[in-house]
Design a protein that fits this description.
single chain; alpha/beta; Rossmann fold; 3 domains; nine-stranded mixed sheet; 21 strands; binds thymidine-5'-diphosphate; binds magnesium ion
């Protein structure tokens, strides 16, 4: 049967297909991302094409596997987030707001690798800054003597030609949005350019076996600018986050083909660059004020690590305007749910109250295990009764008000004990395996018991 070519219009950002061109993609709300593409439909089959495919060899699931060599960076927080070191031939996308410290971090990675293994050559290619600017940063970090090879260019063709000949172990592209391929007819930073440049670089990294780091800018919505497919193309996606006004930064793995996701690395931005934070709980609790209402310490788990943090709530009367709810660092839908449960199951009246919730220090958390701590912070603010400052809380709350078990209670309690906490409020099914020494645990099975607790 004859091949029949038709055209369709495909969004380069999310892949949605339209029969006609339109300016805005209805599915991802991006503008000017829809491009015309040829498709071969009815009657076309690869079996009829002139060049025949070759047969694939299938193998059993068992068999010897290749063990990955890991390149250590000497920065333990990065080694942990990447799953034990950098895997040669892998591509890592690092996203984050401007000025958060991505360039600083990656320069420190280069210097770290060069120091541990001088035979592993590191290349730092900046498309954003001139050589002098990077040198000033290196000097500030005290890394000017590190054998990192530095270049400032945006031409992907030149980069590929150079790296093809070079013997590199780690290559940094800062940033992928500045890279340019002259064969692609659109401006640098456009979806088509970003995708084509990333494709060329990743292909080269796989073939030559170097670790490719690409810095990606973040849009207002907090995702990496350019095509979503960029995240699918790479092996690892790391987000570097933090609040402007705070000095600590969190490196979070959201995708990792060579390790666990949701692992975090904590850093502090100092005058001489990023410094690893070995005890994040102590840092997050450092500015806690004793004896104030609305503050509750939550024993959370981030990746493989327990992290204690302060949850702050402020409940105040809304006056004549509608009740406001504002959340920083947690899911606002989850807060609405907790407030609804507290109203329905504990008889609290929150509908005429503004409720503000803040995870102190600018940390972002997503664990439902924080529910109970949030509920206690809200009740503490509402009743204006401070919670004991040596108490930690964790537990998930269900719609009928029941408090549910969460993962790794032992690890949470151990961390709390290490930091000198003496009381804990925990879900009931924690029951049997409590072996936490001096910590006094109180089990709460339902939120209606919380209110008595405050009397
Ligand atoms: P940078 O790495 O340039 O951020 P990005 O590449 O993510 O845009 O870091 C910029 C900020 O970090 C800048 O505001 C200054 C600050 N900084 C320090 O506080 N200490 C340092 O040692 C360095 C190099 C930067
Ligand atoms: Mg930068």
């Amino acid at each position: 049967m004859a091949k029949k070519n038709t055209t369709e219009f495909v969004c380069q950002n999310c892949g949605a297909v339209y029969p006609k061109w339109q300016g805005k993609c209805d599915s991802c709300n991006e503008w000017n991302t829809i491009e015309e593409q040829q498709t071969q439909t009815a009657g076309f089959s690869v079996l009829n094409s002139r060049k025949k495919g070759s047969l694939i060899d299938f193998v059993p699931l068992s068999g010897s596997q290749q063990t990955f060599r890991r390149i250590k960076t000497g920065i333990s927080e990065i080694d942990r987030v990447t799953g034990g070191g950098l895997v040669p031939g892998s591509a890592i996308l690092v996203g984050g707001d401007p000025g958060i410290g991505k360039s600083t971090l990656l320069l420190q990675v280069c210097a770290g690798v060069s120091k541990l293994a001088p035979e592993d050559k590191c290349y730092y290619i900046s498309g954003e800054e001139a050589i002098d600017q990077v040198r000033i940063r290196a000097k500030r970090l005290g890394l000017e003597d590190s054998p990192v090879k530095l270049a400032s260019t945006t031409e992907v063709k030149d980069i590929v030609a150079t790296l093809e000949k070079a013997d590199s172990a780690v290559v940094i592209i800062d940033s992928i949005q500045t890279m340019y391929l002259e064969d692609v007819e659109s401006t640098p930073g456009s979806v088509a350019q970003v995708r084509a440049a990333a494709y060329e670089l990743i292909k080269l990294a796989k073939r030559k076996g170097f670790v490719l780091f690409m810095v990606g800018h973040v849009t207002k919505q907090g995702t990496i600018a350019g095509p979503r497919v960029l995240e699918h193309m790479v092996d690892t996606v790391l987000y570097f986050e933090g609040e402007r006004g705070h000095h600590f930064r969190i490196l979070r793995a959201v995708k990792n083909r060579y390790g666990a996701t949701d692992e975090i690395g904590v850093f502090e931005m100092q005058d001489k660059g990023l410094v690893e934070v070995e005890n994040p709980s102590a840092l997050f609790l450092a500015e806690r004020q004793g004896n104030v209402s609305g503050s509750c310490v939550f024993a959370g788990i981030e990746g493989s690590r327990p992290v204690l943090m302060e949850i702050q709530a402020l409940v105040s009367s809304s006056g004549y305007s509608g009740a406001k709810r504002a959340v920083v660092g947690w899911d606002s839908n989850r807060l609405s749910m907790i407030l609804a449960v507290l109203e329905a199951r504990c008889g609290l009246n929150l509908s005429a109250q503004d409720v503000y919730l803040n995870i102190a220090g600018g940390l972002k958390i997503s664990e439902p295990a924080a529910d109970l701590a949030v509920a206690m912070a809200v009740i503490s603010s509402l009743t204006n009764k401070p919670l004991p400052s040596d108490m930690v809380v964790f537990g998930e709350i269900g719609l009928s008000g029941e408090v549910r078990a969460v993962t790794q209670p032992g690890l949470r309690l151990k961390e709390a004990q290490k930091l000198g906490f003496t009381n804990a409020i925990v879900p009931p099914s924690f029951g049997k395996d409590k072996k936490t020494g001096t910590l006094k645990e109180v089990e709460i099975g339902n939120v209606h018991r919380l209110v008595n607790w405050f009397n």
